[in-house]
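thought: fold this chain, then report.
action: predict
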Amino acid sequence: MEKFNVILFSYLPNAAHFNYCSRVNEELLVAGSAVINALGELPAEYRVWLAKETGLMEWVKKSDLTEQIVEADHRVDRALVAINAQVHALEFNPDVLVSAAALRVGIMLKNYGKVYRKPYEEEEGDVRAILLQFAGAYAADMALLPGIPEWVTELQGALTEFQQLLVQRDAHSLQKPKEGFRFVRRSIEGVYHQIVTLVDAGAALNTSPDFAAFIDRLNPEIARLNAEFHRVRRNMADAEPEPVPQQQYTGQPVTPTPNVYYVTPHDGTVKLQLGKDYNLTYKRNTDVGNAECTLHGKGLYRGSRTVTFVITR
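observation:
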């Protein structure tokens, strides 16, 4: 009698969680009559929580403003850095009027500190204030500084875009569903576990092949998700290093790097990476004779595996 595989929900990112829960709903829609009769109102309750998770996922998909805000912020930062750099360079201009104007503008900019390290709202306010200073109290000085006006225009355009995106972000935040991902995930998982218990019970009693068919359709997906997101540490003793060819004696330590592979049921044969998956140590690797190379697992891999190789003249 086959039972449902246990799915490790806590390891699943929100998107993978939502996709699996949606898959379960698809199977509920085509399940045999015996399964539907046994579950009663549970499928309807399940779909209520799935609808809430759908709403959260749609809200997240619409929240693509983050990357745009970051890029606009980088534009602002680049313009500010360029203006600061050019103003500082002009402080050493041989023209006394230019150098004096640059010195005054530079002092003003320094008073604002490192604007690009401040939170978005503070940065936006400081940049707006700096532009007002450029156009007001320091307008005469700015007119004397070559190359600066173009960067000021760039800064104004970047700031406008930045401000508009911040307004959109704030408006979007007001649309966020009241129930967060954690609460909705736990709720739909609770109903899911009730469904699994009843289906497992039906399969155990052999009351109808509908139960076994329902399980058979979902178990491969559960196995795939567990393998993909549950980071089980693997034993280096099970790794398969290629034989190390004979090494030539040089009078110095010989340190060959063997190719190492690991066979998994889901990913097939994986080539391990030195420094990421394992480190190497050596023994008796200077003189002629048998030497040892030991692979020490790291990251997903634990334990060690020793291989030998021959050093010849």
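thought: worth noting. The longest strand covers residues 289-297.
final: tokens above.
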